[in-house]
Description:
By secondary structure, the chain is an alpha/beta fold. It is built from 13 helices and 21 strands. It has helices at about 15, 25-35, 90-100, 115-120, 130-135, 155-170, 185-205, 225-230, 245-255, 290-305, 320-325, 330-335, 405; strands at about 10, 45, 105-110, 115, 135, 145-150, 175-180, 210, 230-235, 265, 275, 285, 310, 340-350, 360-370, 385-390, 395-400, 415-420, 430-435, 440-445, 450-460. The strands form five sheets. The chain has an eight-stranded parallel β-sheet. It has a five-stranded antiparallel β-sheet with strand order 14-15-16-21-18. A three-stranded antiparallel β-sheet has the order 4-6-5. It is elongated and about 80 Å long.
Amino acid sequence: MDKAWRPPMGWNSWDSYGTTVTEQEVLDNAQVMHDRLLPVGWDTVVIDIAWYDPTARAHGYNAKAPLVLDDYGRQLPDPVRFPSAADGQGFAPLAARIHDLGLRFGIHVMRGIPRLAVERNLPVPGTSYTAAQVADTTHVCAWNPDNYGLDQSHPGAQAWYDAQVDQFARWGVDYLKVDDMQAPFMDREIDAYTRAIHKAEQAHGHSMTLSLSPGTRVPTTHLGFLRDHAQLWRISDDLWDRWQDLYAQFARLARWAPLQSTGHWADADMLPLGHIGLRAERGGDRSSLLTADEQRTMLTLWAMGRSPLMVGGDLPSSDEATLSLLDNPALEEVTAGSADNGEIIREPVESGDGQGRKVSGEEIVWRALASDWADGTPSAHADGVYAAVFWTGDRPRRVRTALSSLVGLDGADGAWTPVDLWRDRTSEPARISLEGQGADRELVALVPAHGVVWVALDPR
Length: 460
């Protein structure tokens, strides 16, 4: 079975806690995932950036922070925020507790080597080199001050990555989110990190998924390289709970969805749903500012585009409405069990009189075929078709889609049953119907503002 055989589904601490999450908060979220979301596919818990910074704070990074490092300059968890990491145990105890819940454990790490390791000129494990010799002090991240780059022409650079990732494998880390890799695109760094993962996997018999960030202007022409080196790669900059952020992902996912393949996934970024901003990078303590319809749009678009699903809201304090969205089994069914996914219609709708007509929104239709999962699980809608009818305008609209565009010209006059995949998650009246006869049959959807009607068309 390929690593990341389906798009991963999990929780990431960034949208709620930024750089400041604690061990107990991670465990509390893991417990909710185990109790409520694991049965429908959510199985990964990820600690985001700065777990090694004892001075971490909301809204920014700390220059010259006294990072917690071992004798070789490798990052260690801050033992105040992560008490089980005391005495050099690292994340091994916490990873074991996450694994005991049947979940996978992930962490974030920055490209390069800590500046503090270079200042101390610490040794590179297994070599005669030092951190100052392998660092590239001009090759730095534009937005985070923790690290210098590595001089990939120096043999000690690979050795340092090898030692870092080997430690992660010994801790039991299953998922590595490696940042500052794609904007600009760091092909030599990605290659070096991939080689380090392969060495650690062979040494410890422990598989690790590689997720690359950020995704600013990542082109599809890098697809072959990305598939050869990673299981996930971001396709946008950080996404937050704003309609304009969500709207921008329609075009990106339309571009990448036809290129998704088992084990290798374009990632539309975290889902800022539920209770976010507690101690986060952007905004204050709040529930997601996306409307309920926009939240369903986001989840549906990500699923139809087969993007990884990483929710950012604090699960224990999120409301029941959010958890009810997340525990919809259709999310895993479509991300794991669909094929030929893509946008098939995108049309602007004009309104106004002849003197001042303007675009009031777009009708966007996605389609995917139901298929058995890569692990052999039968499709929930065998021989069926998934369809998502989106409307980006700010007033509800009745959208008509020719049935033949969804099920094919030969199947348009067949017997089909539309199943609303969000129907039991909302109190709204039925919003879909099939109208007309033969080749003129249409799927008619009453779509809310910034909303979606998501259906499975099952053959009778």
